[in-house]
Specification:
It is a single chain. This protein is of the alpha/beta class. The protein has two domains: about 140 residues, Lyase, Ornithine Decarboxylase, Chain A, domain 1 (Beta Barrel), CATH 2.40.37; about 240 residues, TIM Barrel (Alpha-Beta Barrel). Helices cover about 25% and strands about 20% of the residues. It contains ten helices and 17 strands. Strands 1, 2, 11, 12, 13, 14, 15, 16 and 17 form a nine-stranded mixed sheet that branches. Helix 4 links the parallel strand 4 and strand 5. Helix 8 runs parallel beside helix 9. The longest helix is centred in the middle third of the chain and has 17 residues. The chain is globular and about 65 Å long.
Amino acid sequence: MTEFRFRGAVAPLRRQDITAAAPLPRTVDGIVAALRPEEPMHCLRPAQVAATAGTFLAAFPGTTMYAVKCNPEPGMLRALWDGGMRHFDCASAAEVRLVRSMFPDAVIHFMHPVKARSAIRDAYAQHGVRDFVVDSEAELAKVMAETGTASDLGIIIRLALPKGGAMMDLSGKFGAEPAAAVALLRAARGLAVKLGVSFHVGSQCLEPAAYARAITLAAQVIREAGVPVEVLDVGGGFPVAYPDILPPPLSAFMAEIGDAFEAAALPGVQLWAEPGRALVAGGASVVLQVQARRGGELFVNDGIYGALSDAGVPGFRFPVRLLRQTDAAPVPFAFQGPTCDSADRMAGPFLLPGDVQEGDWIEVGQLGAYGGCLRTAFNGFDRAGMVDVIDAPLLDTPGYFMPAVAA
């Protein structure tokens, strides 16, 4: 008899129990000195994440939901909840189940424009989800069919945007063109108790005016549709700082959004946002161990198939530091990941002391966003540990998206 089995690709992160090892410090350096980890170690900063969530919630003039795909680690979700986050943007049945299991009172929004029928059914019937994004007539019909033509739905129409200047363009996969969005709004009005328009300007968008242009386009679509609309969702894409990138401050994005929304003159419409990276990037780092050095190449125990996916083809540079004292001057290094794939290389450059050697530990910062969730099991390198720490982010920029937090 053939047995059908589900298999997860990646082992869960293993949380190290450091509370029982008093007086072990709750700092990265102290933990590494005590544990001497030979596998990657994710270091979460819950206090930083909670403070950053509070900063964004206070700044955005509407409802803020966290984009769970960015980092679904339960410790990260709890920190966001502690910071006041009560709305969550989920994109899969598994994310819906996770959030509902942790937070019975959370408001969950299913923001993926294309969903499995079973995911729609379970989200609506078992987990109390009422808001669904669609970008086609077929998806609208699917939502209505799988919810039993429910009378309490929120339907959000995803609007396509022209290709923009964000570091990661998201214009090619989802979204209805303006004329199709107009038709969808008209079709959905009689089916939804709450109707809205959403868009996404792209991930790590460095241009505040991109939100204003998108709001103007969305307002034109709403006016042309000629039906009442309750929600305008400006999506995510809010950027964070990296070693070679210092975006405009949060206030610049909020000013553009506020001015454009006021100019759009949409009475009765509420603003939504779906930040991910902006809330959690500074909230985690990963400690790596150097396994070999060959000139300017450091062979480390994590790579593009693990926490450093964005350092591969996307070419993100991350802040780094050597976890020992040295007077050696910094020099540029590239990283080679642990797998046998020659593509598992991160060009950087990553500036580290010139005497770095095999056995050293390196902390890589700004990995709270997509550092944990993009891990794979390729080549068997799927194990990693996790601890909570009280350290400040490696790239500390108070006043931006990372407010200063007292240790």
